[in-house]
Design a protein that fits this description.
Elements: H1 2-20, H2 25-32, E1 39-43, H3 47-60, E2 64-67, H4 72-81, E3 89-92, H5 98-103, H6 106-111, E4 116-122, H7 126-136, E5 143-149, H8 160-176, H9 180-183
Helix pairs in contact: 7-8
Length: 191
């Protein structure tokens, strides 16, 4: 009985440390964050997402960040049509996929002390995006609030394999700093 009690106390103490100041602390911080949104992040791939993000940024007077969106000329025209000043808009084309949308940006957002982001993407892409984003952004203490963009009639439900696969890639990136997709390809610099 004493062994069980000791195990429970040690396990509880370890869990308390992990959540309070250990490796899970940023997730707790992101989960409990109730601050006002500080940024609108649009996951590119559809001009309706960019239009919705620009409208939302204008209505809430927030900066807009479009990751992997339409070509620079069109995106610039679109945000100007929505009345956003160019200095409030950042276009970022480093991402190749949903995981990259987050991994290419989270360290910069953390350095800018961004704690709460409105995530704009298509309704059929939102659950996978939130799963990936909560792992990656959560690792930096950043809270995400999803904003779905209607995609009817062209919505396509994403497979559970794609959702779980991308979530596992996100977890692996947080642990290793590398994407599992790249693990099979040797780093040309030998890192």
């Amino acid at each position: 009985m004493a062994g069980v009690r000791t195990g429970v106390l040690l396990g509880g103490g370890l869990m308390f440390w992990m959540v309070s100041s250990g490796p899970l602390a940023p997730y707790r911080q992101a989960l409990l964050d109730r601050s006002a949104p500080q940024l609108v992040l649009v996951l590119g791939g559809d001009v309706d997402r960019e239009r919705m993000g620009a409208k939302l940024a204008g209505e809430l007077d927030l900066p807009l960040l479009i990751s992997g969106g339409s070509n620079r000329e069109y995106a610039t025209w679109l945000v100007q049509e929505e009345g956003l000043e160019p200095q409030r808009v950042q276009l970022d084309y480093r991402a190749q996929d949903t995981l990259g949308n987050f991994t290419s940006l989270v360290d910069e957002l953390q350095q800018r002390d961004v704690r709460h982001v409105l995530l704009v993407t298509s309704a059929d892409h939102l659950s996978r995006s939130m799963a990936v984003g909560q792992v990656v952004a959560g690792s930096r203490g950043i809270h995400l609030t999803g904003v779905p963009v209607d995609c009817k009639p062209s919505c396509r439900e994403e497979s559970w394999v794609k959702r779980w696969g991308d979530w596992l890639r996100a977890v692996a990136w947080v642990i290793t700093g590398r994407d599992l997709k790249d693990a099979a390809v040797p780093d040309p610099e030998g890192n």
